[in-house]
Amino acid sequence: MKIIHKISEMQKFSASARRKGKTVALVPTMGCLHKGHLSLIDKAKKCADLTVVSIFVNPTQFGPKEDFSKYPRPIERDIAQCRKHGADAVFLPEAKEMYPKDSSTWVEELMLTRGLCGRSRPGHFKGVTTVVTKLFNAALPDIAVFGKKDFQQARVICRMVRDLNFPIRIILHETVREKDGLAMSSRNTYLSPEERKNALAIRRSLISAKSAILSGRKKIGCIGKMIRDEISSAGGRVDYVEIVDSSTLEPLAKLSGNILIAVASFFGKTRLIDNIDFKISTGG
Amino acid sequence: MKIIHKISEMQKFSASARRKGKTVALVPTMGCLHKGHLSLIDKAKKCADLTVVSIFVNPTQFGPKEDFSKYPRPIERDIAQCRKHGADAVFLPEAKEMYPKDSSTWVEELMLTRGLCGRSRPGHFKGVTTVVTKLFNAALPDIAVFGKKDFQQARVICRMVRDLNFPIRIILHETVREKDGLAMSSRNTYLSPEERKNALAIRRSLISAKSAILSGRKKIGCIGKMIRDEISSAGGRVDYVEIVDSSTLEPLAKLSGNILIAVASFFGKTRLIDNIDFKISTGG
Q1: Overall number of domains in chain A
Q2: Distances B270 to A65, A195, A241 between C-alpha atoms, Å
Q3: Does the predicted TM-score (pTM) go above 0.90?
Q4: What pLDDT, in 10s, does the model give residues B78-119?
Q5: CB 3.0–4.6 Å: which of A56, A148, B72, B184 could bond B32 by disulfide?
């Protein structure tokens, strides 16, 4: 497995692969790899000849009061995990090459980023689309794999790829969960044992909400309140609960079609997100 | 010579070239090709195995009161010219594929676009960087060739390519001029015979300014006024005259180093731009 630091070296790796007729899949990560990331690597390996995992804690997607500096960076363990899961290269770009001092170009998606995390984390998605563009142009993949836990991010990346004509196929992979249902996240390591237990309310509330909708509950406001109440009673501080069309991410006027329920909530100082998506057929 | 309309077909053309070990150069244009464009094609042919000319009148780089709808589109003649100059493909994307209805992703450069045409044409460069990104991802060139008449555009594209890690080498080509000095431009066709004659004041004033600076004139304000006066006396309406560092495009405090004098001016309703760049050694 190659460890690559320089952008030009990364580009050469992929160009050389392509000349040999091989396809390349990229799994972009911020490191602190958990089973969710590892399942993306496994997926990538099934979809392409060569798998590249990028590890870069992207400063521009963190807000000024967020956890950039304390974001966990267990780089040796991450590299070992990539090797174990059969990655062909790990791309570890340096911040000073990804963002030169006079760096001044940004990529921004303006529609799908208006609600959900886009509303509560101003600038976050601008950082995401910019860094993913930089990573795409460095790794030049045929395929890139993203997880559905960051559902809005995944939609935004798909839109960006379409709009900017990136010759890349995006594969979305299901959220991987702990046995008790908590969505895998690098930020779970921040939780105290009690917060960890309380945080299960997120998943529980999403499942209840889906059941309620499937069993005929119609009022979007009530469903939203149900989720908020369940999280609050468990000691969580709700950032948002949104019930939206899973393609446009626009709030739904009524419960039909492709539904996404997305939640962000603080347990202690840790902000966690999760979501559930399902379809309600409009017939009958 | 291939005529390509679909983005996916364009991508296949370049991917297939690359698999055969061939390099691709792109000459992005808005059509209405003149000798300036043709010199870019000639240059491209010397730098790469295959030359692609894109012709796309990009709506998003025109302001609401600008000449998008009346911009000349002599497409058959353009195609004949490309063929004559040995292009291997002409890429003619359709607006509805370049900008789908719900298109919502933009690329923006924020530093080099603050002055000059960026100030007088709000949104112009955002349209340029966005469409050039789309064209780069469609044509996937190794090399792209731009003219120095649009000096600021060229600098912005170079910055974007560096910032976003595009694996593309940008080649800048000298401005091609009519025998009497007028910079070639598709917009010259708008000029009446009298405006055409008066417009020579732009080039004349730039040459005088350069001479004045080289012969020791130090006051930036006076040099600027000299240019303005010469253009105004010829009946032109000055949009801007700026004397800037040719790398940063920031206004100069004193006349030394790499100097760019850039002018935009209306003759009748037609806005023309031109520039001159030169170096003053700071020693002695």
Answers
A1: 2
A2: 50, 66, 53
A3: yes
A4: 999 999 999 999 999 999 999 999 999 999 999 999 999 999
A5: B72
